Amino acid sequence: MNIEKLKNLYQNTSKHSNYQILPNCLKPFIDTNDLVINSRFETERLDFLKSQIDFTGKKVVDIGGNTGYFTFQFIEEGAKEVDYIEGNKEHSEFVKFAAEDLNLNINVYNNYLNFDNHSEFSTDADIVLLFNVIHHLGDDFGDQSISMEQAKVLMANSINYFHGKTDTLILQMGFCWKGNRNLLLFENGTKEEMIDFVKKATNGKWNIQAIGVAEVQDGATVFNLLNDENVKRIDTLGEFRNRPIFILKSI
Question: How far is the C-alpha of 10 from the C-alpha of 25, rounded, in Å?
């Protein structure tokens, strides 16, 4: 394994660099003290997914997979195969080289998915992970000249693009369009507004099986099922931890 090459690819500077911790399979080879890592609570989100979904023997697709934390961890959790789709070249190469060196059943696709009928997408996926991608529509991918309201319509369409292509869709999205804190997708920036948006967007196509919400318990972040208390916006958690995780089942 070319450790220096992997470290250089991981630390490539871009808007979405260093967003994920290293997966377990790479920790024996790469010293995390040599890396700058800005975790987005990957292990905590994965723990919630594992509490709700059995990945054993499943074909999984990871859209916007960044440096592949979830892709590699799904393999560790027993997934038979993962399709990793990522537009950033260096991130894709990082995952490709690591997967090849470890002989893991990961297919790497270096492209952005445009969520339309012209997109090439495997239709035999059991599970699709769509973590924090669609709020970048009109920025990282798609038409950059559209309005926010047009973008919200296309975001709803992007969720429903996977209907009929997978049984389970795992969704997380941001409150700010294009990651710009001055462009709120929902007027008050609340979880209730986002949940209402997803419910209306998915009506008749998806059932919401579970919604995970971040809480702090004994100083640690934990994602628990939605309830009347944790649905409230908690500003001290920051924007990212206020983003719910939706597990959708195709109707």
Answer: 15
